Amino acid sequence: MQKVIKEYLEAFEAGDVEHIISLFEPDGWVLSPLLGRLSVREFFPKVMAVSSNIRLTVHDILVSSKGRSRAVVYFQFEWVLKAGNEVSFECTNVFTFNPETGKLAIVLSRYFATGILKPIQQMETAMQKVATGDFDAWVPAVSNDELGSLSDH
After folding, report:
1. pTM of the complete model
2. Partners of 29 in the beta sheet?
3. CA distance 68 to 10
4. pLDDT-based confidence at residue 55 (cuts at 50, 70, 90)
5. Coil, helix or strand for 63?
6. Which residues pair with 31 in a beta bridge?
7. Cα distance between residue 65 and residue 67, in whole Å
8. Helix (H), strand (E) counts: the chain
9. Sheet harboring 104-112: ordered strands across?
10. What is the Cα–Cα distance from 104 to 22, expressed in whole angstroms?
11. Which of 1, 45, 89, 125 has its CA 20 to 30 A from that of 61?
């Protein structure tokens, strides 16, 4: 399982959609907080179409101690959206394998959006200052996305 997971992560980082898909059962699917449940043939082309410069830093690969064909990977996922925005998530992916073939069957993803939380927390702090009458509160715009637009207003 660890070998397949490492191969998957390397192919993901390289943006190699066909290689990623080849590691899955034909009816394999992914459940993502951002895109919902999609077949691997739908999910990976969508992700790669909007991403570039993918960097994955693996913190842990944990294999089931109950004899199940399952493993969890905890990693840092950094990439650049095609619009130029840098994004960083802490992620956990639960991989379920077909025990007969050793191929991936299901990936369940969870993201912890540290790159999104910090600007929101900064805006919350600024709004608390405004609520107390400090109208000089300011949050610098650090991106050209929706969060950057909010900080400009």
Report:
1. 0.72
2. 39, 106
3. 24
4. very high
5. strand
6. 37, 108
7. 6
8. 5, 6
9. 36-39, 24-32, 104-112, 86-97, 70-81, 51-63
10. 9
11. 45
